[in-house]
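Structure Section — protein described below
Tokens — whole-number codes for backbone shape
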Amino acid sequence: MTQFEKDIFDIVSRTQGIRASQIAAQLGADKKQVDAVLYKNINRYWVQDMSRKWYTAGKQPQITKTRKEDKKPDSLLAGLCRYYLSCLSLDEDKTISAPLHSGYGVSYVETGCFGDDCFKEESTIEFLNKIAKQRNLTAYAGYPVMVDKIFYPRTGENRLTLAPVFLFPIEKTEGRYRIHRVPVINMAVVKKYGTRDANERVYELIELENQLGLNRYDTEIEIKELTERLQQIRQWTWKENISPSAINITAPLNSFTEEGIFNRAVILANGRSPFTLGLESELAAISKISDSDFMGTALYQWIHGKSDGKDAERPSAPGDIPLLEVLPLNTEQEHAVREAMHSGLTIITGPPGTGKSQVVTELLVNTAWSGKKALFSSKNNKAVDVVESRLNSLGDRPVMIRIGNNRYAYHLSELVENMLSSNADQSDISCYDMYRKAYSEQAAVYDSLKKEKEKYISVRNKADRAEQKFCLIRSQYAGVQMKLTKENVSKLQRALCEYEESHTAALKDAQSYITQIFWFAAREKRIRSFNEKVAALNEACKLCGVPPIEPDTAFETFPRQRERIAASIGNLHTAVEYFNALDELRSLRPLEETDKMLIEQKKLLAQTAAGLWQKWLAARPLSISVEERKEMSQFVAAMKLIGETDIEAHPDQKERFDRLQKSVTRFLPCWAVTSLSAKGRVPFLPGIFDVVIIDEASQCDIASALPLLYRAKRAVIIGDPRQLSHICSISKAQDLSLMQRYKVDFNWSYSANSLYAAASGMASPDQIIHLRDHHRSHEDIIAFSNKEFYDGKLRIATDYKKLNIPRGITPGIKWINVCGETVKYRGDGAYNAREAAAVISILRRLVSDNGYSGSIGIVTPFRAQAETIREGLCRNITLKNYLDTHNDCLVDTVHKFQGDERDIIIFSPVISHGTQSNATSFLSNTGNLFNVAVTRAKAMLVVVGDMQYCAACGIKYLEHFAQFAQECGKTKMKAAQEEPEYTEVYPRVSNPEQVSEWEKYFYSALFKSGIKTIPQYPADKYRLDLALFSGDRRLDIEIDGEMYHKEWNGELCYRDQLRNQRLYELGWDVKRFWVCQIRDELQWCIKQIKLWQRQS
């Protein structure tokens, strides 16, 4: 042992679990020299653990291994994970490689160094810029490089390929290229040197990652140590000394003829993301855990069928005040947030434009507000970016971390620095307390108004039920309702009893023997008493509207009269119940007024909530201790350094930075990450988050969600099954075979089920919350999807004032008929040149001629058509420049528009004369894609295509849409252009089938009282029963017809509320009368209208 080796041995002996960088620092030596000695004598004098810490031989801790061996993996979870690993293996090619000699241009470029220094080379930048222009390609830095011979059966040749051992994704942020810090091992190398079994190969890869420490969240990643360790544990064909600081470039790779691993570095491109490998790694790790290791997580609930439980402890807001609505929520949205705050599983679904993103934002706000942690995830970056931006923009202090590349890291440092530089003081706490008190008081007022509304609905329904019974006897009691009271009916009942008693007393045969002897003396008095009781009974009958008894025949007709009056008393109680209910209903505040007050109170609550949220954020820095402020300050400095240099080259600082990152999450409780980017970025610990929220779940496969569910205690799944769905390339036969092998139930199917479908299948009905208020599109646009895809369940609540409508153009749907020719293009592809030219022409008229500056989307089912339109735009330089300057314009297939919205959507269906069966077959299976396409439009949907062909193309949804577009223009509401005709008789209207007899009756009654109304008046998207104008004031008079002889349930009431709210926005007042009020209290109803007229 040399002196240098002895010095290293002494340091390791004194400090068990020391890193190579620390040894080098103590010796004042070059770390490369220390590494060389350590790896030369590994397992002889010292050993290294998976986190790359060094111990003298025999001193390495064995605690983790012993504990793991004592536990058995959860069999259900293990089988499911192995199933998904096999599916992923079939679904994507795991190798990332490039031909050594390519006849199709350059597919890789060699570099003389590894790391960010390689971006100084002109050839590297040129290659990366070329890759950036191509779709579906990702650039990677690879080192070292394996050269392999691949046999091609079709040609019978052996060809040389290169495949890097380690792959580092390359990111471009702020105009600069950077290498991602976490590498993955290339499956091509494992395939070369490992087992032949594809399924076992995945586990071999995972085992290798564990041995290298790549699956540990807190492990430093240094390429030098990775390669040194790999050479020690794998006896592969190492052709050169592997040293990233001395990369060999004496001979180009394309001159090589032998196989092996060489000390070379390359930049190459591939269509497969290595983040999928990260998913496989986490699935393999989960497959080995025991049930006790993940009990209490959302994943445990899913695996063992306990998704319907509630948390034992329901989270509450500070001060135990109500739900914080920074953004106003409707009833269903509020219910969704409340349910998600405590339920083990919540499904939130709704068509486009129903405010799912608003629910997510409010849920995150209330999670942070409750002192909890949330993880938000989606399959695409855009959805994650939107949520992060929306949440953090609600206040001056951030609460969400966007996990991702260096651009996000640098932005995070700015947010934390702003928090630390806050000048918060005691006044912020005082303001916070003031806002909290105000919010509690306003919430109490709002709750009181809701209870008042609930009482009105209850009384209204009670009166409705009573009226249904009263209808059977109404004719008997016409005009007596003002006298008919409970007291009068009781008086009639007592008078009838006294009538019966006096009649019995006046019958000689009914008396005792003694009374009969002296009957001559008693008879006259008793007859007189009987007549008095008859008179009293008749008086009671008169009050109750019951025909009286003829005094002359009263005695002889007693049995018949008694039965008649007794039968009437039951009916009288029914009438009393009805008229009492009417009186009670009349005594309450009108529902329209309560609704108006609720709307105003809701706005006030939202304003106060926004202020409360701001003050809560402003006061938070005061709760940071001196030590915490010091750590956060160091974190900011570290984040800035990361933006300028590679922290991986400084392992001690890297280790400290990891600790700082965990500390800062206390003040940034919400995390956001794409579903495949969690590995190495989000701590892989069970239940570390209180809730995971997964958006666009109908597009998400189940496999990628399991590691996210493992990290959380509860799950919120958001999606729309009628939009884009999960797509995979494995066949149904392959999937069934794998399900058979791993004994997996159908609901876990990788190819057949999305995450949304799986979650819906295990949820109870009360855990699935439907959002139905649509706020995005013009009614004509959304009406088709509502009917075709959503069973008419949507409520249209779009505020037309917010629509960006082109000048002089009517909003809604417009079909431009173009009879072109469909040309087949590569497989199922197709394009239509005439349609493409028409799209360009429409764009020119819309933006250049009209000066429109709204957002525009041009959507088509076929990529070839999208390319044809793009090429047409490129040839029209003036138009393209105008669009780039004034309009947010996107031309693409439907997939690029998921989660997006545009003021105008131009849709090119492509199919026309010449359409082949393959294109028609493709469209027949893409109804959901069409739904996504048309529901992106807010103000206008312009279809450019062959209407006649589409109307008979055999594709049901397209045929239905062509028919809908034809009818749409005919059925649009048109405001009355002639002076209304005021007559006593109800005038003719364009929609008589929608007019009830009671509307006509009330119209005439009002006219006779001097009140002239306009029937079926068009206002926005509604028809008003009767419209009344008084100066600048406008009144909508609604008569609920006899169809309302049923419970006025939440849906009926809510639709009326939405209608009222929209009319309030347009400046209308609303009065709603029940048909029975018109029938039985006509004068009172007329009086209400006159009172409105007299109001100033």
About this structure: Residues 503 and 879 are 102 Å apart (CA to CA). The longest helix spans residues 426-470.
